[in-house]
Amino acid sequence: MQADDLGGMPDAVLVDARPYGAYSKSHIPGAVNLDLFAFHWADTTPSGMEALAAQAARYLSFAGVSAGRDVVFYDDVSGMLAARGLWLCRYLSHKRSYMLDGGMKKWLAGGRDAEQGTRAAEPGSLDPRPDMSVIAGFGEIRDRMGKIRLVDARAPPEYDGTVARAASAGHIPGAVNIDWVRNVGEDGAFRDPGELRAIYGEGDAVTYCHGGYRAANAFVAMSLAGSKPRLYPGSWGEWGNLGLPASRG
User: Which of 63, 81, 113, 236 could cross-link with 17 by S-S, CB 3.0 to 4.6 Å?
Assistant: First the structure.
């Protein structure tokens, strides 16, 4: 959604998903802070994905996210943190969830006001109702390898194994590397749907990265391009520490 759209959503919860230090220095008036870097998950067993829903609902509720109420996430640009918040809401079947395109960068570039300090959030209530159509676990990917299209949203050195951030290095066999930074233009906003389609091609896919943040941005980008992606939240942080197959190069 665009900045001008906020005017028509006076009761929306506006969530600044950046770390507290960035939020306290300058944020959109009325926004509350929920550092989504602080919510990491690396267990995509069936019970782990069920627990993810319960914990995510509790965490988002701290910021006032509630069923039946709009929530808008933003960060510095159309980045990984706001996308993470949006994906978590979609996983919880909270459809009234949005991402502010361009984030703080585009907001300020438009001459809009900002404020400093903090704002206390009024806790909300959000039931965990997992939508399994937007998520994939390591078991499914392992068992259907070669039949699922995989998009690795990490930087090339992580993908090719030059940089190792887990017990094993490289990528899930068959995955294609599309660095998430390609999704965002110089103004901080997502590229238009046609450009994103040219980047990702046609068809659905499972996105992953190292911890499910960059992959969330790819999830949103592919959705804008008209696909129906899923996200593997455990990503390489889980896969690369389980002794599962890995490719390099």
Answer: 81
CATH code 3.40.50.880 for 136-239: no
**pLDDT (average), residues 59-82:** 96
> Locate tokens 């006032």: which residue?
64
For residue 161, is it left (φ>0), alpha (ψ between -120 and 50) or beta? left
Alpha helices in 1-155 (DSSP H): 20-25, 46-62, 80-91, 103-109, 138-143
Q: Which amino acid is at 134?
A: V
> What sign does the CA torsion over 220, 222, 228, 231 have?
negative
Residue ranges per structural domain of the chain: 3-131, 136-239
User: What band does 241 get if pLDDT is binned at 50, 70 and 90?
Assistant: very high
Contacts of residue 87, defined as CB under 8 A and 6 or more positions apart, other chains included, come to: 134, 216, 219, 220, 231
Q: Where are the beta strands (DSSP E) in the chain?
A: 13-16, 32-33, 71-74, 97-99, 150-152, 176-177, 206-208, 230-231
Task: Quote the CA–CA distance of 33 and 120 in Å, as a whole number.
Answer: 8
Q: Which of 36, 3, 13, 20 is nearest to 214 (CA)?
A: 36
Q: Do domains 3-131 and 136-239 have the same CATH topology?
A: yes
Per-residue pLDDT tens digits for 116-160 = 999 989 999 999 899 999 999 999 999 999 999 999 999 999 999
For the cut 90, the answer to whether the pLDDT of residue 163 exceeds it is yes
Q: Which CATH class is domain 3-131?
A: alpha beta
* Amino acid identity for residue 135 in this structure: I
**Residue 217 pLDDT greater than 90, yes or no:** yes
